[in-house]
TrEMBL record:
Domain annotation tRNA(Ile)-lysidine/2-thiocytidine synthase N-terminal: ranges: 26-190
Keywords for this protein: Transferase
This protein's name: tRNA 2-thiocytidine(32) synthetase TtcA
GO biological process annotation, one example: tRNA processing
Amino acid sequence: MQLQRLLSYARKAVDEYNMIQDGDHIAVGISGGKDSLTLLYALHGLQRFYPQKFQLSAITVDLGFEDFDLTPIQDLCREMEVPYKIVRSDIYDILFNVRKESNPCSLCAKMRKGALNQAIKEMGCNKVAYAHHKDDIIETMLLSLIFEGRFHSFSPRTYLDRMDLTVIRPLMYVDEMDVIGFKNKYDLPVVKSKCPVDGHTKRQYAKELLKQLNTEHPGVRERMFHAILTGNISGWPERTVHERRKTS
């Protein structure tokens, strides 16, 4: 995927769900993976021409894994002139050595987000961008249906009132295969996850299930995504692009 196509997808999401306002200071959560680095490229590129002017910073919560070298990401942010903050933590030690969690993902996510949000507020940011793409949104819907019995998924824009912080997801229209293509084309400095349960989670199950369903019923993936966009999911903001087109 070319950078121009990535920027087109990101702008579509930002415009349709009113994700960015003039004067925003947006923190990009960087895990080290392909998705978050693609998001960094998208917002850095959008920053150059988007009519609403905004600041950009990047942040990583270091969970405490050994040999987790973030130097390549530091170099990339320096090249982009994007301020980058690393938050050191002992989350790995707490989960795997102290508590010895057999299913650590939920607690890990809560601890990571807690550390992330606190640091973001200290940096003076009012928004944080997560790198969830189209496949993530569909997989989350499947997980919600299967394990919670409800039709639900990530919202494109969510206001966290207790933190006075807004979460945005500018990659929501980007396919995971396009992210992989972008990573390969631009040789993104991916730092591989050191998590011992990576690839053995319910989310991995949903990913494989979606792939199987789309192989057996071509187009089902896009139909599921359309159902999410038009399903009036609680907490989702309205899409505003159609109103803007009418008044333009």
